[in-house]
Specification:
Distance between the termini of chain B: 29 Å
Structural class of chain B: mainly beta
Shape of chain A: elongated
Strand content of chain A: under 5%
Largest interface: A-B, 38 and 67 residues
Radius of gyration of chain B: 34 Å
Number of helices of chain A: 4
Oligomer: heterodimer
Order of helices and strands of chain A: HHHH
Number of strands of chain A: 0
Radius of gyration of chain A: 24 Å
Largest sheet of chain A: none
Number of domains of chain A: 2
Structural class of chain A: mainly alpha
Largest sheet of chain B: 8 strands, mixed
Shape of chain B: globular
Strand content of chain B: over 45%
Helix content of chain A: over 70%
Chain lengths: ~100, ~1200
């Protein structure tokens, strides 16, 4: 009985540890992903971060597809180099400055 | 109706916009070549000094987006290789193999995901000038460095990648630094945005800095270090390497808005301003940037040519000594079109790959040393901010240092196209709007080879036939032109002048059937009553046709003569060793009368051609042996659909191979070419041993009986086929092509060779003798251009006349009225002359628009009226509308039901043009729009302003709909009718889910609108309630650019990402929408803010280029209808429906096999490429299937074996599909 209880306790503690370790590992993996792949979100991703990320992806795609860059360049009637430069500039802050973080 | 469709995609005109161009010795020879990347293709050009033009050597489809290419040469090699930065997530190193005329993959290393992504390298590429390393980088974060080397067998080796990543930093430019043989250094222009991302006040964003960073590759330690970094101007955009080591001071030029800086690690900074044009229109708010440049090294010196965004070239030189740079100097050089890239050839030429319009090739006349242009030196700009110094100016002027040698015509950017047959030819033409700004043009494109006319002269009578002949076997050029008339023969000599020859020995009192130079130095004339053999000393030997018979057909080569008599007998002669023509003892009698004969050329090293082809009027062709052992024995018979009018045995180069050798490309096959009475041309393989005919290819040429002639075009034997048009049959790469000549329809022809014109063709047309040359066999379309004022936007044809109305508009450009205003304000107007806009561009001014309407007649190549828009309005849409719904019904209409339409007065037609005022594109703002109504007068050649109506947004789409005008204004769809003072709004549809309606199609009561972001919506217009009801829309938000209706339920369209798609509405939904009495549709539940039903996607395909127009049309006479699209970069392509399920299966299998066997050169997976945005559906890539022809023999064989067919069958099937639908 006593033995059983102790076993049970140990197993529960172990189990908790494993869960904790799992969580930690998941956290680490996520962080690893976030450093490797730009734009991977997390639980606290703000709307601003997400939208900025989408815009940066779009702008990079406009720059990277020669036909699409030409599409913009013809519409603006500006040389492609200038349009390209403007688009990279836009990628710095595509959606304005981030919102103030609310104090908790 | 089956709901599935299968389409075959074919590119007719490949894109002509150049993304990147490089120069180098790619063949390993001394001559430099140019490689250009356009779309997914790579072309190799070589300059031909004798012809004064760039010749395309090869063009390869890589099935991937080429974003940048760079040449490099590893130390000790004499050949340049190519690195491609593409969307494949791989680095590809290619080598050009001149003997195969193909690019070959040397290395292909994967480093990331596929696709054009923010952090996957491929956008930027830099190479160490000594060819030791390369850096491939993405817009954000990632940079990889590969070490390039050679192994002991002189093969190029590539290392594993070394990372130089920097998270949260954006890259603007990267270049290799010339450091001699020190460790390679790459210079990068970067911006780190990590702080700006965290600062809500925006302070960090405002203070953001751009840095110039040097990354050094330590070859000893095998890693990359950030070596040096310094802040540069925030607006810097471009880096140029400065020669180093023994050749110069090393370092980089950083090009920035307004000025250029020399930078090097721990060295002094030198700055020079970019001079501005001295014009009264100068917009001082606009700063010049350098858009591209080139550095050229000479023996002891080097210089830069940098181009500003207006197209002005500046020569930049550097004064330096052992301590470093003393001064940077800049001087105006010349003005050329704004370029994507510039390339200087060592032989003194400059290649300008223009952004819009044709690419130019210039020769350097001088290097600007004695031009007397102001030179600006960095020693004057040492202290303070560059903006504190006054602007410096120069006077733009026509070319002084360069002279234009060659222009490569392009269709880039191709903004709108319509297929129509205005000329009344067999095949329709494509009318397109191409080019940008003042370099734009209205283009008429037709299928045909471009020719250059050498001579066109009127003759005294109408000749029936023409020949050219040499006098001896050794002659390289022809000496006589022999003309046959109905009652005589005329001999002309070719020389400085063309004169009649009387002592030629030819019988001049009779028509001629054939002329030939035979043996060493004698001539043969075949005429209806016999054969005349004329020796060098004018001795004549004659053979007379038997009594009461005539010679009806004759054929000759340099040793053999065969004639057919009116008694259906064939008489055969052969030259003996003494040079005498001897008749063969027997005559061959045919069962039907003979219409044509052909004996092939004597093969090299043999004494006779062993086959005689005989065409009989019982619609058969017989092949007869001429070999001594079985002379005149029949070998094979082929039945035809009509009687043959012309035969020609001619071997042509092609990809077929001898079964026992691996020899490819060098071989040629013997073909029998047959022209039929019904206008069909056939080409059949003639077996050289058995004389059997096989593998027949056919093509319909025209309504008249076909005549065939052997000619030479661009160094290869070709067949000139004459019907109601003139055609040329030739081999391009390895595939067989039959293309019409963009020339007069000829009646008779022959090859022509003289000193001035080595590979010409002589022909007769009516009573005219014409001599011409075929320029280029690589391009099978010919386009004529008519220059336009501004970037064209849309074109519309007059409903009945051969006239087009073109609207044009240019952003950031001064319109004539605004220009006049500025000029009147300026004091310097007296000494200012307007420069030609084609070369210097229109004056730019931020926020201004220049726009006009022009009337173009493509047949006479004339322009009629031009109406300029004023008040900063720009035209975006145009349509012709009759407004017949509101025009009072004429009384005559009732009385004259059977009145002839052309006898009556035309009803009034109006041209409606939609304009936007003060439009700003990013961010989008619009000061309202207008609908201008013009009455079409003067047989369509004039426009009379009626009135204009203000609307709240830019009207981008317009269509006549049931006698009224349907307009898409922003997110509203409206119906307007003509009023006295303005247009009257009759009905409106507005939806929250729409952004901007860009296309409208209508049929019956159905209206299909395409939204700029939200795909297509089907609506029904209900007369009774004057109401639009949407009933079907799409599940995917497609960024539509063009849409056309294929049938009542189906549309085909394209989006701005480069996809083509076909959508269909369910038949039941479609029927319900038409039958609905209102209640059901009106109360139908909307689904997620959209219509009640969804469209089904039938087909989807990625074409890489942005589709700008799409149309259902027929391209070849007798062919089936195809979907033709035009792409922005100058692509014209088709989607053709398959005729049978068998074909679909065959091509699907072939495509699958080719995907594995012919792996794309840049390393992109073909299936993923064609499904870049949405997986490919129901479309087979014809461009891939056509790669079969250029595969190595063993691969061809294995694929053919898999398909259970022969190689020739597969080739014929692939080629046949193209000719069936298009060209």
């Amino acid at each position: 009985m006593q033995f059983n209880f102790i076993c049970c306790l140990i197993s529960r503690v172990l189990h908790n540890r494993i869960i904790m370790a799992d969580k930690l590992r998941a956290q680490q993996q996520l962080e690893q992903l976030q450093t490797r792949y730009v734009g991977v979100g997390h639980a606290d991703t703000t709307k601003h971060e997400w939208v900025s990320n989408v815009h940066r992806d779009s702008l990079a795609s406009y720059i990277g597809h020669p036909a699409m860059l030409e599409h913009f360049s013809v519409a603006f009637n500006e040389p492609r180099e200038r349009v390209r430069m403007q688009f990279v500039d836009k990628m710095i802050q595509p959606c304005g400055p981030p919102k103030e973080k609310e104090e908790i | 109706m089956s709901s599935a469709i299968s389409l075959y995609s074919l590119t007719l005109v490949p894109p002509s916009a150049i993304t990147s161009s490089i120069v180098g010795q790619f063949s390993g020879r001394r001559q430099q070549e140019i490689i250009t990347a356009s779309g997914s293709r790579m072309q190799l050009y070589r300059f031909d000094p004798s012809a004064g033009r760039l010749v395309q050597i090869t063009s390869t489809e890589v099935f991937g987006i080429i974003r940048t290419i760079k040449p490099f040469r590893v130390a000790g090699s004499s050949k340049d290789c190519i690195i491609i930065g593409s969307d494949s997530g791989r680095i590809a190193i290619l080598e050009y193999k001149p003997e195969q005329t193909q690019f070959v993959q040397v290395h292909l290393e994967t480093f990331g995901k596929t696709g054009v992504r923010r952090v996957v390298p491929g956008e930027y590429l830099a190479v160490d000038p000594k060819g030791r390393a390369t850096m491939i980088a993405s817009v954000e974060k990632n940079k990889l460095v590969y070490i390039l080397n050679r192994d002991t067998n002189a093969n190029i080796t590539i290392s594993s990648p070394l990372e130089a990543h920097k998270p949260r930093s954006l890259l603007y430019a990267v270049t290799g630094l010339d450091v001699g043989y020190d460790n390679p250094i790459f210079a990068a222009l970067e911006v780190d945005y990590s702080e700006a991302d965290l600062d809500p006040s925006g302070q960090a964003y405002r203070e953001i800095q751009k840095t110039l960073t040097f990354y050094q590759l330590d070859l000893g330690l095998n890693h990359v270090v950030r070596m040096w970094s310094d802040i540069v101007d925030r607006q810097s955009n471009l880096l140029m390497e400065v020669p180093g080591g023994a050749d110069g001071p090393s370092g980089v030029l950083v090009c920035t808005e307004g000025y250029i800086v020399y930078r090097h690690m721990n060295k002094a900074v030198h700055r020079v301003p970019i001079p501005r044009r001295r014009t009264p229109y100068d917009d001082s708010a606009r700063k010049r940037i350098i858009v591209c440049g080139v550095m050229h090294k000479m023996k002891r010196d080097f210089f830069f040519l940098l181009q500003s965004d207006e197209g002005d070239l500046f020569k930049v030189t550097i004064d330096y000594n052992v301590r470093g740079v003393e001064a940077l100097k800049i001087q105006y050089f010349d003005t050329v079109p704004v370029a994507i890239s510039l390339n200087i050839l060592k032989s003194g030429f400059l290649f300008v790959a223009a952004e819009g319009g044709s690419h130019n090739f210039y020769q350097f006349v001088q290097l600007g040393e004695e031009s007397g242009e102001n030179e600006f030196t960095s020693t004057d700009y040492v202290k303070g901010d560059m903006s504190d110094y006054p602007a410096v100016h120069f006077h733009p002027r026509p070319l002084e240092n360069l002279s234009l040698v060659y222009t490569m015509e392009t269709l880039n950017p191709l903004i709108d196209a319509k297929v129509d047959n205005l000329t009344g030819e067999d095949a329709p033409q494509i009318y397109a709007l191409a080019g940008q700004g003042p370099r734009s043009s209205f283009r008429s494109i037709r299928h045909g080879l471009d020719v250059t006319e050498v001579v066109a002269s009127e003759l005294p009578g109408e000749p029936t036939a023409v020949w050219t002949t040499k006098l001896t076997a050794q002659d390289t050029f022809d000496s006589y032109i022999v003309l046959s008339f109905t009652n005589g023969t005329l001999v002309l000599s070719i020389g400085e002048t063309v004169e009649e020859v009387t002592d030629s020995g030819f019988l001049s009192s009779t028509p001629t059937l054939a002329v030939q130079q035979v043996g060493e130095d004698s001539l043969v004339q075949v005429y209806p009553k016999g054969i005349r053999h004329i020796t060098a000393n004018k001795e004549v030997d004659e053979w007379e046709a038997p009594l009461h018979t005539m010679v009806v057909a004759a054929t000759t080569n340099s040793r053999q003569v065969a004639v057919a008599l009116s008694t259906s007998e064939i008489v055969y002669f052969e030259l003996d060793d003494e040079g005498q023509l001897n008749e063969y003892q027997d005559r061959k009698e045919m069962r039907a009368s003979v219409t044509s004969l052909s004996v092939g050329d004597v093969p090299e090293g043999k004494v006779r051609s062993s086959f005689l082809a005989v065409g009989c009027d019982d619609s058969t062709v017989h092949v007869i042996s001429l070999d001594p052992e079985n002379t005149l024995e029949s070998l094979s018979v082929q039945a035809l659909t009509s009687s043959p009018t012309a035969l020609r045995i001619l071997s042509m180069p092609d990809s077929t191979f001898l079964e026992n050798t691996q020899l490819l490309n060098a071989s040629s096959t013997l073909y029998l070419h047959i022209g039929l009475y019904n206008g069909v041309y056939l080409r059949a393989v003639l077996d050289t041993i058995t004389g059997q005919l096989s593998d027949t290819q056919t093509q319909f040429l025209g309504a008249r009986p076909v005549k065939l002639f052997k000619v030479t075009a661009q160094d290869q034997p070709a067949i000139l086929a004459l019907s109601s048009r003139s055609w040329l049959a030739y081999t391009k790469d390895v595939s067989f092509m039959v293309t019409p000549l963009a020339y007069e329809a000829l009646e008779f022809g022959d090859g022509f060779s003289s000193e001035q014109c080595e590979m010409g063709i002589v022909g007769i047309e009516g009573s005219n003798l014409r001599i011409f040359m075929v320029n280029d066999l690589t391009e099978n379309t010919k386009s004529d251009g008519l220059p336009l004022a501004y970037t064209p936007r849309r074109l519309i044809r007059h409903p009945s006349r051969a006239l087009f109305y073109v609207i044009e508009s240019d952003n950031n450009t001064l319109a004539p009225d605004a220009r006049q205003e500025l000029l009147s304000m300026s004091r310097k107007q007296s000494d200012y002359e307007d420069l030609p806009a084609e070369e210097f561009g229109n004056p730019k001014f931020t926020g201004k628009w220049a726009s006009c309407i022009e009337i173009v007649d493509p047949l006479s190549q004339e322009k009629f009226a031009r109406i300029d828009m004023v008040n900063n309005e720009a035209a975006f849409s145009v349509t012709v509308c009759s407004f017949s719904a509101s025009q009072p019904r004429r009384e005559e209409e009732d009385e004259g039901v059977d009145r002839k339409p052309d006898g009556e007065e035309e009803e009034d037609l109006y041209l409606v043009v939609g304009t936007a005022k003060d439009l700003s594109l990013a961010p989008r703002r619009c000061g309202g729009g207008f609908l201008h109504v013009y009455k079409i007068v003067d047989e369509g050649r004039g426009l009379e302003f009626v009135h204009k109506t203000e609307v709240d947004d830019a009207p981008v789409a317009m269509l006549e709909f049931q006698g009224r005008l349907l307009v898409g204004v922003g997110r509203c769809l409206r119906i307007y009718d003509l009023g006295m003072k303005q247009l009257l709004r009759k009905s409106e549809y507005k939806s929250r889910s729409l952004n901007n309606i860009v296309t409208i199609n209508a049929a019956h009561n159905r209206i299909i609108i395409g939204d700029i972001q939200q795909g297509v919506t089907y609506l029904v217009y209900r007369h009774a309630d004057n109401q639009f009801l949407p009933f079907a829309d799409d599940v995917v938000a497609r960024h539509t650019t063009c849409v056309t209706m294929l049938d009542y339920e189906t549309v085909a369209g394209g989006d701005k990402f480069g996809n083509l798609w076909v959508l269909r509405c369910k038949e039941s939904v479609s029927r319900d929408a038409d039958e609905d009495n209102g209640a059901q549709l009106l109360n139908a539940r909307t689904y997620l803010d959209g219509a009640s039903s969804r469209l089904d996607m039938l087909a989807h395909f990625y074409v890489q280029d942005v589709p700008t127009s799409i149309q259902k049309t027929q391209l070849v006479p007798g062919g089936r209808e195809v979907i033709l699209y035009s792409g922005l970069q100058g692509t014209i392509g088709v989607l053709a429906p398959f005729a049978s399920q068998g074909d679909v299966d065959f091509f699907q299998q072939l495509e699958t096999l080719l995907r594995n066997e012919a792996r794309p050169l840049a390393g992109r997976d073909h299936l993923i490429y064609r499904g870049s945005y949405v997986p490919v559906k129901s479309v087979i890539d014809g461009d891939l299937c056509e790669m079969y022809a250029v595969l190595p023999v063993d691969k061809k064989r294995s694929i053919a074996a898999e398909l259970e067919r022969t190689v020739r069958e597969v080739e014929r099937k692939v080629a046949g599909l193209r000719t069936r639908y298009a060209f």
